[in-house]
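lol forgot to send this yesterday, sorry. struct tokens for the thing we talked abt
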């Protein structure tokens, strides 16, 4: 089944998910009313995060989806995690939820510091 999904899907996830280097990301999130989301755990978030970010833990699926359901799917969403792995999984989940533009911080929060 996975092979059929791969062969017949309309577009690839990579076409809708953009990975931005830290400098480009910083400029992009400087705009007003940006949907900036940290998908790490609350503990990681409380240890340090990007100013203005909301915390929606990727591992808490129901609260993650509930939080994103309140966001504007037609507007860009900027994601990050610790290293970039979770945020890529989160980005794919957001595309399945109907978001059209998802931007991820290359290297995650580690690269931000």
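and heres what i got for the seq, position by position
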């Amino acid at each position: 089944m996975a092979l059929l999904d791969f062969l017949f899907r309309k577009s690839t996830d990579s076409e809708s998910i953009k990975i931005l280097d830290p400098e480009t990301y910083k400029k992009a999130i400087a705009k007003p009313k940006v949907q900036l989301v940290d998908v790490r755990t609350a503990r990681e978030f409380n240890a340090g995060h990007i100013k203005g970010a909301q915390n929606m833990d990727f591992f808490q699926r129901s609260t993650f989806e509930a939080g994103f359901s309140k966001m504007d799917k037609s507007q860009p969403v900027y994601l990050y995690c610790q290293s970039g792995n979770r945020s890529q999984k989160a980005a794919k989940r957001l595309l399945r939820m109907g978001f059209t533009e998802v931007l991820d911080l290359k290297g995650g929060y580690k690269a931000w510091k």
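The first strand starts at residue 17 and ends at 20. anyway ping me if u want another try
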